[in-house]
Amino acid sequence: MRIACLGECMIELSGSPLERRFGGDTLNTALYLARLLSSEPEPVAYISALGDDPLSRDMLARWREEGLDTERVAVRPGELPGLYLVELDPDGERRFFYWRDNSAARRHFATVEDFTPWLDRRRTDALYLSGISLALFPGQRREAFLDALEGFRAEGGQLWYDNNFRPALWHAAEARAAQERMLAMTDIALLTLDDECQLHGLRDAARVARNALDSGCGEVVVKRGAEPCLLAGPDHWLEVPAQSVPRVVDTCAAGDAFAAAYLASRIQGLDERHAAENGHRLAATVIGHFGAIIPRGSMPGIDPGG
User: Fold this and answer.
1) Helices 254-267 and 25-36, packing angle to 10 deg
2) What proportion of the chain, given as a percentage, has pLDDT over 70?
């Protein structure tokens, strides 16, 4: 299966003393997907933009080392990647500070006219993106991109969507409108309850799932942190407990990791319950490490279940 993930990766500063890493929601998922699906014949692709500076070149080299296809990462001369700083409280919960308004990805998404290379069905069977991905587009370009996604889906492409909502990137009203269109054509939605609460004031996972299904979404996962996730679809409705963690170090990328393991499991033919169990397992491993990307040697594999 030819998978592409679309969004922005940035330089990450975290720790004390500060350490430099990289991360971004869809990049985190793409990289974990690439690790989990390394035996598959087609590499996972990432669609984004970077500058031509040493930091951007270093990120590209590291993505390629992980097996990602970077042919659709645009290089914009003279521009730079975005930057974010992470502060952690004693429980591992994070607070973000961003410097991304003039990032190469933000500028690229604001000006790209032709989405064909991104959505070419000869190269892409499934596209994964998030609310953050959509927020990178200014209004008219976002509508044009959503139109292009409808065409991609009409041609048989699959769409996978994570609602990641960041108020610093756009107004809630814009996000609600974009998500409404997105869910109507989404095959698998991975929705975080806290984000739905910010967007719609909804605190009930069952209602979140029902709304997504009624919008046209085929399969829904509602993530609730340490609480059981809710899985919903036309023929299933169940909860799957999260995996206990001895010590939470850093919650960065927990949801992104869950998404990667869930999707990799579904690609490999596992049912929703086993997919969610694998998602919880990887998320639990990730939050036991600092930074969005854990060492390859710490990765749990996909458990096929009993």
Assistant:
1) 40
2) 99
* Whole-number pLDDT of residue 4: 98
Overall average pLDDT of the 138-151 stretch: 96
Q: Which residues of 275-289 are buried (b: 16+ CB within 10 A; e: fewer)?
A: bbbbbbbbbbbbbbe
CA distance 10 to 138: 19
d(Cα 72, Cα 178) in Å, to the nearest integer?
24
Task: Note the pLDDT of residue 222.
Answer: 98
Q: What CATH number has the domain bearing residue 278? A: 3.40.1190.20
Dump pLDDT digits (tens) for 11-27: 998 877 888 999 999 99
Expressed as residue numbers, the domain containing 243 is: 3-298
- As a dihedral over the C-alpha atoms of residue 200, residue 205, residue 206, residue 210, rounded to 10 degrees, the angle is 50
Domain count, the chain: 1
From the candidates 147, 256, 271, 303, which is the catalytic residue? 256
The answer as to whether 304 is a domain residue is no
Whether 256 sits among the annotated catalytic residues: the reply is yes
